[in-house]
Write a structure and sequence with these properties.
This protein is 65% helix and 3% strand. It is mostly helical and 548 residues long. The chain has a two-stranded antiparallel ribbon with strand order 1-2. A two-stranded antiparallel sheet has the order 3-4.
């Protein structure tokens, strides 16, 4: 990737006492991404010359970029993109559709194997002996509705009290860690309690080095929330994808439950005699294991595609605002979010499937390793090897998900294939100092606090429901803890899906800022001035590599 490391910040119009800059050549400004012209070339810049340095701009002053913005300059390797986006990584899209069709066929067979009384209901919520029944489905529907309502309320609080939420989320994390440590110590779990207390104290001491990040994080959060208010369709799309993910998860869980009954016919059992002359029976069912592995893989891949289509859609919306807000030609389409969704579901769908496939393979391998660990509790060597493998795979998964998050921004903006987007993302983070922006942004803390609070509220709702209705399958109370834990985990995941507009918006802001800082100087001078002062490497201008 080739970069121009000259400062490309454009000052405001000249004030009295300063000579005017030389007149720029009259050329048409080039639009961005998929829109406008037969071909798109990423913007190239020419530094204007001044006899004296101009005064700094006021915080809220708007000024347009020079008229030659997007033309000329000495950038090398600028890549031209066609106006009509091409279908990228088509093989991955076809492979995904094939596996999903196979899953639907298998799931239909498994669900048919469920008992015929599973969905029959007499009208009494407590009169049910089957966990997979309508009363239980009503409980999960309540979990979904409460999660949506809480997430929307929390989003409103973030928009109104951005700075306060950042401070509260930091100390909330400190109190949570110390409180957990105290609980473990009270339960005489000394090692875990000591570790949590140490981490809580160290996290509290980090306040003195982290508090300078709050003004920057607050401004980024305010910008992201402003764009979500400008395009409320991002929230509508998030709710729609949340419902889609919930429906798919419910369908998958029913199929997984039915697989136990359906696969019994393939079980092979044989009788053996041990050295003491006692007989025992050994059973194996390799077909059932293969079916479970495929279902787990299909769940990870399909869920990843659903979430990443949402992520790419929101990234495209934010990038459109970033590049076109305040520009003379205005927005290239009336329905920005809908156009972004269309691209994510068509030309960029293969790239999304490709990136999701990589993560799904790693997650499936981790699930297999964890199953091996659970089956070898008495084998210390197997436990150690499985634990090391799980740790290594976990690190790889975290790294791949981190890069994928920003690679999808490149896919949303430029329509790149996945490998090219991943390569450019690596160069962007390695050479541009974007990692400093990401590390100094505390928006993730606010989202994590909201996810925990949402999960706690929803878990309480699930506990109240099962306590009041008292279903027969939970007479002994054996289902109470699993239901509360499941509600807690589901609520956290649903909160993060619904607040994807914030997380994706922040990621898009960072990538677009590093790709073309002059657009930020045009539509948000306050944030640009703060980034330019604290992170000068990021605003030096960067554009795509050749060879894509």
């Amino acid at each position: 990737m080739s970069y121009n490391y000259n400062n490309s910040y454009y000052p405001p119009p000249q004030q009295s006492g300063y000579p005017p800059p030389p007149p720029p050549p009259e050329q048409q400004q080039q639009p961005y991404g998929y829109y406008g012209g037969d071909q798109y070339q990423q913007p190239q810049h020419q530094q204007p010359q001044y006899q004296q340095p101009p005064p700094p701009p006021p915080p809220d002053t708007y000024y347009p970029p020079p008229q030659n913005y997007g033309n000329g300059g000495d950038f090398k390797g600028a890549k031209q993109y066609n106006r009509e986006p091409k279908f990228r990584d088509l093989w991955a899209a076809l492979l995904f559709l094939a596996q999903f069709a196979l899953f639907v066929v298998i799931a239909a067979l498994f669900i048919k194997s469920l008992p015929s009384t599973t969905f029959k209901h007499s009208g009494n919520l407590s009169y049910t002996k089957n966990f997979y029944s309508w009363p239980t489905m009503i409980m999960w529907l309540c979990v979904l509705l409460v999660s949506i309502v809480f997430s929307l309320i929390y989003l409103g609080l973030m928009q109104m009290f951005a700075g306060q939420m950042l401070v509260i989320s930091f100390w909330f994390a400190v109190v949570s860690m110390i409180g957990t440590g105290v609980y473990y110590l009270a339960a005489k779990i000394w090692f875990a309690g000591g570790i949590m207390l140490i981490f809580g104290i160290l996290y509290a001491l980090m306040w003195f080095s982290w508090r300078h990040r709050i003004p920057f994080s607050k401004l980024v959060l305010e910008v992201v929330c402003h764009i979500t208010r400008r395009f409320p369709s991002t929230i509508v799309v998030s709710v729609a994808f949340l419902i889609l993910q919930a429906a798919y998860s419910a369908f998958w869980s029913l199929a997984f439950a039915g697989s136990f009954k359906h696969m019994e016919q393939y079980q092979n059992c044989s009788t053996h005699t041990d050295r003491n002359g006692r007989q025992y029976q050994s059973c194996s069912n390799p077909k059932q294991i293969l079916a479970w592995v495929f279902m787990v893989f299909s769940f990870y891949w399909t869920s990843g595609v659903i979430l990443n289509v949402l992520h790419t859609t929101i990234c495209g919306t934010f990038a459109t605002f970033y590049f076109f807000e305040g520009s003379p030609q205005g927005y290239p389409t009336k329905h920005v979010t809908l156009s972004s969704l269309k691209r994510a579901m068509t030309s960029s769908f293969g790239s999304i499937c490709f990136g999701s496939l990589v993560v799904a393979i790693i997650q499936t391998l981790r699930a297999i390793v964890r199953a091996i660990r659970s089956q070898n509790d008495d084998n210390l060597a197997a436990q150690l090897l499985a634990c090391c493998a799980d740790c290594i795979l976990g690190c790889i998964e975290a790294i791949v998900e981190f890069f994928n998050k920003y690679a999808y921004v490149e896919i949303a903006v430029y329509g790149k294939p996945f490998m090219a987007a991943a390569k450019d993302t690596w160069t962007l983070i390695k050479d541009r100092g974007v990692d400093a922006l990401i590390n100094d942004c505390l928006i993730g803390n606010v989202l994590q606090m909201g996810a925990f609070l949402c999960a706690a509220v929803v878990a309480l709702v699930a506990w109240l429901y099962i306590t009041i209705t008292k279903p027969e399958y939970n007479t002994s109370g054996s289902y109470t803890a699993p239901i509360i834990i499941a509600a807690f985990v589901l609520a956290m995941s649903m909160f993060m899906v619904l607040l994807k507009c914030i997380d994706s918006g922040a990621a898009t802001t960072f990538v677009c800022l590093a790709e073309d800082p002059d657009a930020m100087a045009r539509n948000n001078p306050r944030l640009f001035a703060m980034v330019r002062e604290a992170y000068p490497r990021v605003v030096q201008g960067v554009h795509a590599v050749d060879g894509f």
